[in-house]
Amino acid sequence: xxxxxxxxxxxxxxxxxxxxxxxxxxxxxxxxxxxxxxxxxxxxxxxxxxxxxxxxxxxxxxxxxxxxxxxxxxxxxxxxxxxxxxxxxxxxxxxxxxxxxxxxxxxxxxxxxxxxxxxxxxxxxxxxxxxxxxxxxxxxxxxxxxxxxxxxxxxxxxxxxxxxxxxxxxxxxxxxxxxxxxxxxxxxxxxxxxxxxxxxxxxxxxxxxxxxxxxxxxxxxxxxxxxxxxxxxxxxxxxxxxxxxxxxxxxxxxxxxxxxxxxxxxxxxxxxxxxxxxxxxxxxxxxxxxxxxxxxxxxxxxxxxxxxxxxxxxxxxxxxxxxxxxxxxxxxxxxxxxxxxxxxxxxxxxxxxxxxxxxxxxxxxxxxxxxxxxxxxxxxxxxxxxxxxxxxxxxxxxxxxxxxxxx
Length: 407
Known about the structure:
Helices cover 71% and strands 0% of the residues. It is mainly alpha-helical and 407 residues long.
């Protein structure tokens, strides 16, 4: 349907230009003194200002008569006279010689020409730079399902918030609430929930300190604040290899103007980061940006390939233990927050076949067969080059068959 896009775009652009030109051209045609000799413009009635002056003059005389007859007091007559005189002066200022005959018409024509040329050309230039007509739109059904999932997650999150207001000493609950808020992009609320979790038994957990620092940084529009830096320092003191704390500590160095130190820290993190880690593209982007800022040639920059692959992110034993203590609704919100996090990471690294298979399984557990089918479709191209006896290829084929979408 791409061939239909350009004719429709041209038609809509022409319609917009026509709507904008109409008042400009009408104003030029109606400008005084622009008609030919003998035309209707030359025979136009007197200016409105002349008419207003006659009316206001009559009103002044009427006010004087009413004052003389005693219908108006001296104060009322003076106030009315001042108001009419003010209007009379304004009308007199409007009664000025008409501009040169071709002034309004030339100005309107110039404006019309500018609109005619700049609007479509400027819009076309912006679209060619930013647009993507071949990009397929998200199916309406999938958009509706996504809205429903987000709305459901918001409801469960608010339910957990109310429970914590009744039982504020539940540190695990605060941590779950913080993760849910972060998944919804509510970083200020997530940071406050992480503070509560840290204050209630989580101060000695490196991952929790690091998550607090990340939420505080996100709430500050990406600036590593002193509070966030303190959380990252605590996390690194507890676990020197904590990747999130290492990443943001390097970001703090960059924001302080210490580009070389930031680049070295990110390079060291890249050497320890698994090649299939979801955050590796972001890390590479920061490394390239720091190198460009230092004037280092990108072609000569050898970014470490990373450590051997490790299992994809998932709940830790502590996370599972915490989930067992929650109600069924809270446990579902907890699982959903992890699933949405996995889905977001897969959008950043869509070639992670094992990740897509984990997402399929998680969607089925949550009772979301349509979302599971969508994940299977994303995984299907990744198994085409695998051997026929590969278990992952058989799993994708079987999943598509069971969900009514045989390949």
